[in-house]
């Protein structure tokens, strides 16, 4: 008897991670994965099956509809996995606005609503729309589900979500939404399993990757986060600026004569670690560099992370745990140490050996705050929610 399979798509601004899961007794278990970087020429599929990884050059090129790329990619997956057993596809969608508070089946009205939110997440949302439409074209019989990064933060109060701008603007959607919700959802689940007492307390998690943010949890619920209306907000990132005085945008538009498109490109693609260092957006390259610009970019990164963690502790009214996750958070002891050194006044103290070894618990026995390194897995949340949607749709029929 065949085992049902489920596919997940986790798009970034220029990449897409693909997960393949078996579904047994309502549980999704990863059996394979792939990744495509749309900036590479030729395109290359990184395909993993168990402990084996293949690098496959694709013949197709990137087009607006992605039909050819996705068709070829699914063909390669089919040479390693029985894709005839696919029952559903789950998508990470960065922005759900105020409409979507949890995972949903993608129908015509759902897709229209997701598309309407493209201006609020111009780097990521278009990728989701293209992937959804491509699957509709290639495998129209498959149920598709959407999981929203913003949904996890809907527990935040209006006080936290409001900007100090004319009140009517809040009612039209100009408010703080928060992102990386799927990652934080996974992290809080791991906390509940591994550190149940801490999971019931006041915790700040730092999702540090190419995109980066922090989130404040109280008893597992999102109370505040560094990202606001857009994925530009909060701490500096690989190429994104983080929090910025709105007057800078006005200055660039009015005094320097930049177009809106040029400002958008500068703030999304040419700022952050890349902009400050002038060397690279990759923190690993900056750590290996001896140039002062590289050091300053990393110091600014840690400085802003620590400052945001302290602000979030104020929202929580205390701090019992600090969690590092995502690529930088999980694998860069230097960054974690630089952040925690600035939080010593809050009672944060690292155990150097544990931190250098990327251990699960990296705080010292004397630390008043438990500091953890927890891997995240957004694709697992997407898969879990796609199964949830699938069962819900089956119950309706």
From TrEMBL:
EC assignment: 2.7.2.1
Amino acids binding Mg(2+): 10, 378
Entry GO MF terms: acetate kinase activity; ATP binding; magnesium ion binding
Enzymatic class: transferase
Cofactor(s) required, per the database record: Mg(2+); Mn(2+)
GO CC annotation: cytosol
Active site: residue positions: 149
Coiled coil start-end: none
Main location class: cytoplasm
A Pfam family reported for this protein in Swiss-Prot or TrEMBL: Acetate_kinase
GO BP, one annotated term: acetyl-CoA biosynthetic process
Annotated InterPro entries: Ac/propionate_kinase (IPR004372), Aliphatic_acid_kin_short-chain (IPR000890), Aliphatic_acid_kinase_CS (IPR023865), ATPase_NBD (IPR043129)
Superkingdom as given in the UniProt entry: Bacteria
Keyword terms: ATP-binding, Cytoplasm, Kinase, Magnesium, Metal-binding, Nucleotide-binding, Transferase
Gene3D superfamilies from the UniProt entry: 3.30.420.40
Record note on cofactor: Mg(2+). Can also accept Mn(2+).
Binding positions (substrate): 92
Subcellular location: Cytoplasm
Record site feature (Transition state stabilizer), residues: 180, 240
Catalyses which reaction(s): acetate + ATP = acetyl phosphate + ADP
Purpose of the protein: Catalyzes the formation of acetyl phosphate from acetate and ATP. Can also catalyze the reverse reaction.
Quaternary structure, from the entry: Homodimer.
Protein family: Belongs to the acetokinase family.
PANTHER family membership: ACETATE KINASE
Protein name: Acetate kinase
Organism name: Paraburkholderia fungorum
Gene for this chain: ackA
């Amino acid at each position: 008897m065949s085992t049902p399979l489920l596919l997940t798509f986790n798009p970034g601004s220029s990449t897409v991670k693909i997960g393949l899961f078996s579904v047994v007794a309502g549980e999704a278990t990863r059996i394979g994965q792939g990744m495509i970087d749309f900036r590479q020429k030729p395109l290359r599929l990184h395909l993993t099956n168990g402990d084996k990884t293949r690098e496959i050059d694709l013949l197709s090129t990137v087009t607006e509809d992605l039909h050819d790329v996705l068709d070829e990619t699914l063909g390669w997956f089919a040479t390693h996995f029985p894709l005839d057993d696919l029952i559903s596809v789950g998508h990470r969608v960065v922005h759900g606005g105020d409409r979507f508070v949890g995972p949903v089946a993608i129908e015509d009205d759902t897709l229209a609503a997701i598309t309407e939110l493209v201006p609020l997440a111009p780097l990521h949302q278009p990728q989701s729309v293209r992937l959804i439409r491509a699957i509709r074209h290639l495998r129209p019989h498959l149920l598709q589900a959407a999981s929203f990064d913003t949904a996890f933060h809907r527990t935040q109060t209006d006080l936290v979500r409001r900007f100090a701008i004319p009140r009517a603007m809040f009612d039209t959607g100009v408010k703080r939404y928060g992102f990386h919700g799927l990652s934080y959802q996974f992290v809080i689940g791991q906390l509940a399993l591994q550190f149940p007492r801490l999971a019931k307390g006041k915790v700040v998690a730092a999702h540090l990757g190419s995109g980066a943010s922090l989130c404040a949890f109280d008893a597992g619920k999102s109370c505040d986060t560094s990202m606001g209306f857009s994925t530009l907000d909060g701490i500096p990132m690989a190429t994104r600026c983080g929090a910025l005085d709105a007057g800078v945008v006005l200055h660039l538009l009015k005094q320097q004569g930049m177009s809106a498109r040029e400002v958008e490109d500068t703030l999304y693609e040419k700022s952050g670690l890349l902009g400050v260092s002038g060397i690279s957006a990759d923190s690993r390259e900056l750590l290996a560099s001896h140039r002062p610009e590289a050091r300053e970019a990393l110091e600014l990164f840690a400085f802003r992370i620590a400052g945001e963690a302290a602000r979030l502790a104020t929202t929580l009214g205390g701090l019992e745990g600090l969690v590092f996750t995502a690529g930088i958070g999980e694998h860069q002891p230097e960054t974690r140490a630089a952040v925690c050194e600035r939080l010593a006044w809050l009672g944060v103290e690292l155990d150097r050996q544990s931190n250098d070894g990327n251990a699960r618990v990296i705080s010292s026995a004397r630390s008043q705050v438990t500091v953890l390194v927890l891997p995240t897995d957004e694709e697992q949340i997407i898969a879990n929610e796609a199964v949830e949607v699938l069962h819900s749709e089956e119950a309706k029929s």
